[in-house]
Specification:
Two copies of one chain form a homodimer. Chain A has about 200 residues and is α/β, with parallel strands linked by helices. Chain A has nine helices and ten strands.
């Protein structure tokens, strides 16, 4: 039985909060505490987690390390993933310098750009490679995840190449929708879309 | 009758695609064409839009400029919004230099930071102000929207101050959940959360 996307989408948020609780030195939590911290209902959290088994006992709550490890396994982030960054402009550089990726299991191991001014420069200890080498490098390193930080007008073409080179997950920072085969997933990072989801509610 | 959040969340994506079609010189489109370009069903698009009135005629499709203007009105982005940026580190600087905000109706008009090394420096033609001036400046400029690009450990405290100063929409780049009153909305920009929403599906 396949689990609804909307449930899967909440699991990383639970995981982030559990890691935070652990960092604060706590070892046990409850659906009520998580709900309060995440601004949602405890019934929702219990229902979401029930898709994956029994994690807590009635009245005693969840052992944080146990639940955290389970979520990491479910999300397949108990391991490290190598990630390719495409685009070494302002945004690409900010992404490459963001320690959050490595700290949470996603290691940027190669950076590509098509501009001769950027190829050969070093960003976050990685030498920027020509996008001509995209397919060869991704296959060689067996990389499945790509971060796309290039202008919108080139995003689809590069996406087609990423898909052919074996990438199955794309985090797209370009403000444009991407067409991909059903076997490939895309998530979007478009701040303006996020802002417009809020202005609707402004009085 | 209130419209489901999930519908509202899709409207900016429709708007972005309509702007793209216009930029490509097209003046008419259809739910089928939009669906194909966005990788969703045309029935979904028609149903979403039907919440807001009749936009196309059976068989003749949508006039793009008409539908685009309507969506802009619905989302309250037919006007420009002034936005405050909090955080002038690597990420804040990349945000300040991202032309996408201004091009799509969100003008960053002030930048705040708490580090004395950054206060007084100029980023994207704006002088970085001390966070001590947060409340005064936001009230004076009547700013309702904040971009939060500061470390996770300070995000809640600054959020509480933003809310008190009249901010009702927060785009949070810090990898942490924020607690806000019901009258305030938060959207999140956490790339690792987005990646973990995809690794679940990896074989």
């Amino acid at each position: 039985m396949s689990i609804p996307t909307i449930v899967i989408n909440r699991l990383p948020v639970y995981l982030r909060e559990l890691l935070r609780l652990e960092a604060e030195g706590q070892s046990v939590t409850s659906s009520q505490e998580l709900a309060r911290r995440l601004g949602m209902s405890s019934a929702q959290i219990r229902k979401d987690l029930s898709h994956f088994g029994e994690f807590g006992k009635q009245g005693t709550g969840y052992r944080i390390d146990f639940l955290r490890q389970h979520l990491q396994k479910i999300l397949k982030v108990e391991r490290e993933w190598d990630v390719a960054l495409i685009g070494a402009g302002d945004l690409g550089q900010a992404i490459a310098h963001n320690n959050s990726f490595a700290a949470r299991g996603f290691r940027i191991t190669c950076i590509f750009d098509s501009s001769s001014a950027r190829i050969g420069t070093t960003i976050a200890k990685l030498v920027v490679q020509s996008t001509d080498l995209l397919e060869v490098t991704l296959r060689e390193k067996n990389i499945r995840i790509g971060l796309l930080a290039i202008p919108a007008e080139h995003a689809q073409k590069v996406t087609d190449r990423l898909v052919k080179a074996g990438i199955v997950s794309i985090l797209n920072y370009a403000p444009v929708n991407l067409s991909v085969p059903e076997t490939v997933r895309v998530q979007y990072m478009d701040p303006v879309i996020q802002l417009q989801r809020m202005t609707y509610y402004h009085l």
